[in-house]
Amino acid sequence: MRTITTASGTPIELDGDVLAVLEAISRDLMRRHALDYGFEEVAREFQYVIDQLDETDLRTYLKESLFMSFNRFENERMTTLVRRVIRTTESER
User: Which tens digits make up the pLDDT trace of 44-67?
Assistant: First the structure.
């Protein structure tokens, strides 16, 4: 299994787990900036990681990221529907 690093040198094993990549980047940003970082720092860190990935890795992580985003989208949509039903039920009482 191949390993890449964050800009700070934290190793990340490339096993298809996008959450592991996000957690490593998040930990490094918090350690370096104590929660005082913005879009630019995050974008630079992502670019640093992306630059180390080959085409196969990029496809793997894009697929996983899309899947995670879709799940979040569906969960938020379901939550909205459930809240509507609860409001409707409460207003009928």
Answer: 999 999 999 999 999 999 999 999
The residues, any chain, with a CB within 8 Å of residue 57's CB and separated by 6 or more, are 2, 14
CA distance 34 to 59: 32
- Selection from 21, 52, 46 nearest residue 37 by Cα: 46
- 17 SS3 class: coil
Bridge partner residues of 12 (DSSP): 4
Distance, CA of 31 to CA of 25 (rounded, Å): 10
Question: Which residue pairs from 24-30 have beta carbons closer than 8 angstroms and sit at least 24 positions apart in sequence?
Answer: 25/49
